[in-house]
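This protein record is not my work; I was only asked to verify it. The record follows directly below this note.
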Amino acid sequence: MGYVLRRQLREALGPDVTGLQRAVALEIADDANDVTRESWAGLEDLVRWTAAKGERVVRTTLGRLAEAGWEFRVPIGKDKFGNPVYASRGHRLTFRVPLFDVPKGTTTVSPFEVEGTTTVGPQP
């Protein structure tokens, strides 16, 4: 679903976002809707897709991404101290790919959406 969004994000992340942080960000973008930028991937999915050691590691990684300016978690409210809350009993963690500038030369249209094309795959 997030074909275009993932390709744009991998360029926008730059060289400072590496390793598991990069993998988590790209997997969220890959799962996200290109228009709404929302992903409903579960933590268990991100653990499996990135080969992380567990959900706690992914949660820590999401926090580090946020510290680096890449907040993917969607807040559902605030706690008594005014800090954002991202999940609670009965409300699962959801994600939205943050807005970013698309680097020049990056694909902005899926090859499957190019005007005039009606088939996908190699042609005879």
User: Anything to note?
Assistant: The chain is about 35% helix and 5% strand. The beta strands are 38-39, 77-78, 84-85, 95-96. The two ends are 27 Å apart (CA to CA).
